[in-house]
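Can't paste images in this forum, so I'm doing it all in text. The chain is below; anyone willing to post the predicted structure tokens underneath?
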Amino acid sequence: MTGKMTVGDRVERVMVISKKIRRDFSGGKFLLFQFNDRDGILKGVWWEPTKEAETSIGINDVVKVGGEITEYQGGLQLKVAWMEKLEEGDFDPSIFLPTTARDTDELFQSITELISSLGNVHLKGLLEGIFGAEGFRDEFLRAPAAKGWHHAWVGGLAEHVVDMARLADRASEVYPGIDRDILIAGVLLHDIGKMEELSVTNHITYSDRGRLLGHITLGSEMLECAIREIPGFPEELAMKLKHMILSHHGNLEHGSPVVPMTVEAMLLHYLDNLDAQVRGAMAMLEKNGGEGGWT
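Text version of the structure:
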């Protein structure tokens, strides 16, 4: 956000408060803020704030705020002059949430075509049941793939999955011994727990279940529930698919309870990391490109 601002700019915009800290100094008191909208983060300071700002405005509140951009410790911050708390209905929530630039209908159509392309009838039936469940489509297309580094926007999960599937298709051509069906199924399901892990309101944050359990556990639970609804689903296939979800972070220290122990699980991990790191770097360069193209 600050890349679009310079010292002395007058600012008036609607943002959500993500941090608020009270401080005292010899002449009185001040409040430190971190504001967010779809453009990013803006830090702020309010010297001698109003009583309402101290007591009635807090974290996650949406405010209309005005002030001047100043320099502090080598960075830019907003010197707040006034602030007004907004109630639901007084603002458009979409202004806080970055959203995929891609057509979500096309993203979901790509997923349904991938499912139709599977030769394994058990995997195809499982995925048709999950992705075709009532209400699933809208929730899936709203979900981000992360809170920060990569695909951290509405529709990010669908983007991540579709691009990984394209890479998986190419990988199955390069490595003929790969079981394409289970690899594609693993790609489509590996981050499904993020639909519960991440909460999307006027900002992206972690749900209580997300903080306490994490998306790997949540995804494994969702898979087990779906498999229970299919009589006669092969036990070995269920085990391999669950292993892919549990191991896709690759290392124990990165949150996976087990490491990849099949070629498809190993490939899933590397495809996941490849897409996450490249997209994260590209998003960072686009948002925060510095002088000479460096950030």
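The two ends are 14 Å apart (CA to CA). The chain has a mean pLDDT of 90.
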